[in-house]
Design a protein that fits this description.
By secondary structure, the chain is of the alpha/beta class. The chain is built from 15 helices and 21 strands.
Amino acid sequence: MTLPPTRFDFLADVPDAAELGRVHFVAIGGAGMSGVARIMLTRGMAVSGSDAKESPLLRALEAEGAVVRLGHDAAHVQGVDTVVISSAIRDSNPELVAARAAGLRVMHRSQALAATMTGTRRVAVAGANGKTTTTSLLTVALQACGLDPSFAIGGELARAGTNAHLGTGDVYVVEADESDGSFLVYRPGVAVVTSVQPDHLDFYGDLETVKEAYRAFVATILPGGLLVACVDDAGARELVEHARAQGVRVLTYGESPDADLRVADVVHAGLTSRAHLALDGADHELVLAVPGAHNVLNAAAAFGAAVVGLDQPAEQVLDGLASFSGTRRRFEPRGLVAGVQVVDDYAHNPGKLAAVVATGRRLVDDIGTGRLVVVFQPHLYSRTRDFAAELGAALAPADVVIVMDVYAAREDALPGVTGRLVADAVGAAAASADAPAASSRGTTPEVHYEPSWINVAPLVVALARPGDLVLTVGAGDVTMVGPEVLRELETRVHDTSASASGDTSHTTEREHR
């Protein structure tokens, strides 16, 4: 096995959490880091952390018992035993430098999480697309079966209001991040793979190395364990063939005729979905309160993992799936003002983006009175460089596309790589002979490239009309655009009403759904 070098050996044994002593998290406010910190706090462990900027999440962790400091300083690791970092933390970080100089144990976030999983039945959900929602669906389904699973998710469960929980049961569900190879650490009894696609090429280099990483992930499944994989995805289907050749037990799911768990008769109505799941001669009706064909597949994966992988009763699993109310930043409604609905989503690679835009397209076309307006913020310079054409094609079915500049995250800028690459690709994709029309009305998208963050919300408000669906999409701070749009729409409604009535005390109500 030849995978890119990392600072950690993800195949090495990890100590039990009880051996870690006082634990300090560098950048504790991240989605993954905060989840591990929460679980350790619940265990009664001494936890501290630092982050570059203030956030409500930091204050929540502080309320839960963590010692939290703003900024990064070598002094923050004094008196601790273990330092936890993510792959985004650079070697030059003063806390990491000080930890190494002091000979402290330094662990990757995934290793720290694995340290809390001793003695549990582990389910690891991986894949280029859908793993956060699938992990969330599985967690809610298991809760409906009367279990109290531990979980660590890359997004916040809407109903639970948290991204992590230390349960009283012996089942542990974790979203397994493939971006840096760290998904090899968990050694699950049940592994779910939603898709194997070219992504994170800044780490892997090429698709073949991505595939090799997933084959290595399959090799970490415990003897007698189960791989649940989507055969509708070409990369996952190839992985299934490899797993079976290695003697791994496999359950496939999808709409493909040869799927072990067959998804059929998919029906969408507004923000709900229905389908039939056929398994071992039995037919089960799936009802979801979230939209999108991709979420039907995510639910099928959760059903297979719970019923076949963990021997839970099918009807209770279905009840749990029906009760699922969503995950933060996964097609999350943010508000409705002046007839304009705003929805936020974390999608940042071509597959995720295409699924979100397709869902929005269907909703708008079903209603038939408004337009689909997509505000997209590219994430990472390397991903923008490598997949600008695919991102543009994913955006092309919209009526109006606003492309922001690149959210750098952990990367330095690359010469010539800006959001304009994606904006230009939208037009090129829409003009191609085999591109789908922007809507059933046969239009092509109106495209804007807006590199200034502060100008995005005013541009959306200027373009939006009553009946429009506005999607803010991306893994960066585009999530803050939606509230700004709603506030500006409220101001516009207020000013218009006050001008018409002469009453400056008039207020409007934001409707949340």
